[in-house]
Amino acid sequence: MRYVIIGAGAVGGTIGGLLAEAGRDVVLVARGAHLDALRADGLHLTTESGARTVHAPVASGPQDVDLRPGDVLVLAVKGQDTAATTAQWADRPVAGGRTAGEDLLLVCAQNGVDNERTALRRFARVAGMCVWLPATFLEPGRVSAAGSPVAGVLTLGTVPAGAPDPDLGRVGADLVAAGFRAPVVEDVMAWKYAKLLSNLGNAVEALCGPVREPAARELLADTVAEARTVLAAAGIEPVAPEDEQRERGDFTLVDLPGVTRRGGSSWQSLVRGAGSIEAAYLNGEIVLLGRLHGVPTPLNATLLRLAEHAAARGEQPGGHDPADVRGAAARVAA
């Protein structure tokens, strides 16, 4: 079994790097300066175990990878890139005469709940991964993961729910060997909806800075409460917080020598000046469901709008006051 990591940034780089370090066959797919750094010097990976360099084959895209039966594609791009990326890979030939979309297992190692639905348009075999992995893209060629006592908790499940894909148990076992917890569950989307509620804070953090002050914490709490009302109206039941906590157990974040954690994925998008942000697939999912089921979502709609504007304008994180966000949401609700 070979793992083709599509989007070997913070999350994908950590997963692929640790799999390669554990002796698994891995290809890291990246682009731009990160691709150049991986090719030149390997992947510099820092975890609780220390800093080291991992060497694995590197590719710039599907044209550089000769796919073969048994390959597992691990999709680790942001949600806004899922449709284009799956379109690029689905028709790639697999040795033996069929295509990636027909034969290969695609694992969505991504935040949000829309990626699997998008992938199923082109891939017959899709699995979701609920990613609890505090990874940071530090600079081209260098990533870190601050989880302890394991690097991350990666809950897996076939989509749609039901009998697991025949290869998924082996994927889970390989991830465990690489230093993750990787349980295989029947309904992974229930886990991903629970993670979605946590990820609604990504926009709050990106706009208002670290969620430590009371005003930011209250804004986040009200944003999540709004989302829970929406999910209830839609008949969606996320995994209960106590079940989620039981699965995560003693998993926590630690300080890594020489590494400053810079916030979550949306925060990192603004810091890097990526020009886009995944809010449409986090807060925007709540807005969509709210409109479909007649539930107002002024807080999530406002966070979505402001986060996308911040990304398009090249703003740095933390430029908004929580009170101003609330004021804008009140105007939406009026």
Task: Report on this structure.
Helices cover 43% and strands 19% of the residues. The protein is built from 14 helices and 15 strands. The longest helix has 20 residues, at 214-233.
Number of helices: 14
Low-confidence stretches: none
Widest sheet: strand ordering: 5-2-1-6-9-10-14
Helix content: 40-55%
Mean pLDDT: 95
The structural class is: alpha/beta
Order of helices and strands: EHEHEEEEHEEHEHEEEEEHHHHHEHHHH
> How far do the termini sit from each other?
55 Å
How many individual β-strands?
A: 15
Overall, the morphology is globular
- Please summarize the sheet with the most strands: 7 strands, mixed
What amount of the residues lies in strands? 15-25%
Rg calculated over all Cα atoms? 19 Å
What can be said about this structure in brief?
By secondary structure, this protein is of the alpha/beta class.
